[in-house]
Amino acid sequence: MKIQNTLLALASATLLAASPAFATGGAEAHHHEKSTASIGEPGQASQAMRTVQVEMRDSMQFVPSTLSVRQGETLRIVVKNTGQLRHEIVLGSEKDLKAHAEIMKKSPAMAHPEPQMLTLAGGQSGALLWKFSQAGVVDFACLQPGHFEAGMKGRVQVIAAKAAQAGDAHAH
Ligand SMILES: [Cu+2]
What we know:
Blueprint: H1 2-30, E1 41-42, E2 48-57, E3 61-63, E4 66-70, E5 73-81, E6 87-92, H2 94-106, E7 117-120, E8 125-132, E9 136-141, E10 153-159, H3 161-171
Parallel strand pairs: 2-5, 4-10
Antiparallel strand pairs: 1-8, 2-3, 5-8, 6-7, 6-9, 9-10
């Protein structure tokens, strides 16, 4: 009897250990209907695992312009506009960013209340919280008129969860 109980306990422990993976899969399925599904979802402050700093410059650059995260990671991106011009950071697919840049040419003062965007006047700072739930590349750009075309863009490499785990196994 004692042995059977131990086996049962082991079996439940295994199930519990496996459940977070199932929970993640379910959450992702839910977000497929959203237009930002391919780039992830708004992050929760309590889940932010890492903070990175990105600088906006009047030379039409994000510094750094390349970020790297693991699939499923929530990143706090602290953005500082060190220039004098108004800049913004918008996460999206390259296609969406280009379409948005066209709209911005017609309405440059357009407000950006969406969680994947942040507009900053010269000297201002702010932060984006984003969960990168899909592996691949998420582009970002400044959509102030002319800035995207001048090269003010960057990308986030989202490393697949499986690849990241394999990397861990090697490291330890
Ligand atoms: Cu800009």
